[in-house]
Amino acid sequence: MPLALQNISLKHLGTEIQNTMYNIRGNRQVQGTGHGPPMEDAPLSGEPQREEQPSPDDARAPGNDPADSPKPIPKSSLTTSLIQKAKRQNNTFPLFADGVPRTRAAQEKAVALEQQVLMLTRELKSQKELVRILHKALEAAQQEKRASSAYLAAEDKDRLELVRHKVRQIAELGRRVEALERERDDLAQTASLQEHQVEELQQQVQQLTDKNQAKQQVICKLFEKVTQDFAQPPSQPPGPPGAADRDFLSQQEKMEHLKDDMEAYRTQNQFLNSEIHQVTKIWRKVAEKERALLMKCAYLQAKNCQVESKYLTGLRRLQEAVGNEASEYSELLTQLVQEALQWEASEASADGVELSPISEYDEYGFLTVPSYEVEDLKLLAKIQALEVRSHHLLAHEAVERPLRERWAALSELTPSVELKQLLRAGVSREHRPRVWRWLVRLRVQHLQAPGHYQELLSRSQASKHPAARQIELDLNRTFPNNKHFTCPTSSFPDKLRRVLLAFSWQNPSIGYCQGLNRLAAIALLVLDEEESAFWCLVAIVETIMPADYYSKTLIASQVDQRVLQDLLSEKLPKLMAHLGQHRVDLSCVTFNWFLVVFADSLISNILLQVWDAFLYEGTKVVFRYALAIFKYNEEEILRLQDSLEIYQYLRCFTKTICNSRKLMNIAFNDMNPFPMKQLRQLRMAYRERLEAELRELEQLKAQYLDTRASQDPVVPEGCTSEDEGDGEA
């Protein structure tokens, strides 16, 4: 049957169906009239004889259209034909000889009938399969006819579209065929590997079988030897009477002693197990109590920091109320402020419980209490440090420990919604280098090449880059509040110099821009490796930030400032109205936020949390946090009624933000909806406006230069020109 259907053509479907049915009828006639075994004289090919094939002209005639071809034979007619065929074959059995018993003839006839039933069953299955294939072929022919009719009835434009649709279908089928071929190759490779594994397993099974047979042989030999020993015991020299009895009694006595020892050891083991169980329970209770005490201690330290912060805030407000008036209260107030600035928590504990004082530097080397020259700002910095410490202690057990456990459980990093939520919540310090390297590799894997960083370093050593002088000037200005960049013996300035020089050769269109030193410094503090920090800088400048963000014109940075103004007017209209009333230009403050991604503005733990999300999601995070910072301090800004006070507050108000959880919730929850499509549209619109303004400015500049060049220099009366002065000399 498969050979009979293997060359069916959809172009001449009616002819093919007629030929196939003729072939089947011929097979039936041969099988019904023959006396040999079934299917013995069936043709080897499914092709019908040439005399019975209709001509191609008849196949293309309207009457032989695929839609007019004969329908498949129904099941009832097939069943009837099979029954008639069985009757014919029953009548063709040869007559039995007179001498053969009837029982033998009946058995042979039953066997023949069973074989015939099996043959008919197989033929019925083949006929059903043929009907199914013919149905499919007929449906395909009808679809082809409908498509051809639509093609002939359509106009030229519609025909062209139909042809294009067919071409697309062909291309899609080609791609599917290629995919299936690749899948077939993969499956073939997998099958070969599995065959190889099966061969190895068979070899192992063979080895184990050989070992087992060898062991069985050894066991049989040992069993035979033991049997022989029992059957023929070795002759022993005759011993003194009673010696065997004494040996038996001594062995029995030793066995009794060993049983007693085993019982004693068993009792001792049970006792020790119970003791260990009790000690373990006690240890768990002590550990739980210790954990509870540590949490209580952290809570008390946080409350202590809050009380001290409120005390310092009260002193600061009293200073503002008293002012410069000379009185006994002002002297007392000054003395209290000096004592508060020098006071440490460890000195105030009277009961011997040592509370951890505020450390001078955090885990990344930044000053926890900024150094200000003005006394009022020193007091403000101490208040800020106490609030940061308080929030850290309160969030340590409730937030940071579960977050560390989630990062520890995340062994393999793959882009997902869960990973995005984890990055927004922040990465724990021990996992941050690994996560940042993965994020940077995700961004620059198409740019990375082995030895590329070393080549750039060699080029910077061979020839001096024009930006080298500016890089040297900015090295000493990088994070003056971080001990890693201010200590003379630190290796970080040299690493930063090499990273910036390598980047200046990596991207000659930018070379170096002020602000890149702080981006590279943050990457060095977290990743600690020069090459990793270099690729992190490349990822930020060349893949995350828009083009021309760090160019000479900083056009993309200016565009983002206008976009931020628009988003602030939409999200915080009351605040923008207040700032517009006092004519406050926010770009003076926010321009640096975007250029260095808050590197100089936020405290280190919040800054790195912003970078965790920024490296994964892009510049959208910078806009979210910029809006969240203004929302966080909106009430304080609205209280200020003077433009000078507003500018002074905006200069350092980001350092007063201590609650990272609150800021994160504002950025990613309160600022929604925040579609990226809107951000792209705003950037495009403001870029067009800014470029038009720059072109207009260039035209004005060119007109001015042309006007000056066309005018003759005019010498005022009483003055001599430079030419006259030179002639007289």
What are the salient characteristics of this protein?
729 residues, disordered N terminus, mainly alpha, disordered C terminus, flat
By secondary-structure content and strand pairing, the structural class works out as mainly alpha
Number of strands: 0
Number of helices: 27
The N- and C-terminal alpha carbons lie at a distance of 119 Å
Net shape: flat
* Averaged pLDDT: 78
Rg from alpha-carbon coordinates = 47 Å
Order of helices and strands: HHHHHHHHHHHHHHHHHHHHHHHHHHH
Main beta-sheet annotation: none
Question: Which regions have little confidence, pLDDT < 50, spanning 5+ residues?
Answer: 1-6, 32-75, 92-97, 344-357, 725-729
Overview of the structural elements:
By secondary structure, this protein is an all-alpha fold. Helices cover 72% and strands 0% of the residues. The protein starts with 12 loop residues before the first helix and ends with a helix.
Please specify the SSE layout and strand pairing:
Blueprint: H1 13-33, H2 56-60, H3 75-91, H4 102-153, H5 156-231, H6 243-322, H7 328-342, H8 345-348, H9 375-409, H10 417-425, H11 432-444, H12 452-462, H13 468-475, H14 483-486, H15 492-506, H16 516-527, H17 530-544, H18 555-571, H19 573-581, H20 587-596, H21 604-617, H22 620-632, H23 634-639, H24 643-652, H25 660-670, H26 676-710, H27 722-728
Helix pairs in contact: 1-3, 3-4, 6-7, 6-9, 10-21, 11-17, 12-15, 13-15, 15-16, 15-17, 16-17, 18-19, 18-20, 18-26, 21-22, 22-25
Describe, in short, the structure shown.
The protein has 27 helices and no strands. With 729 residues, the protein is mainly alpha-helical.
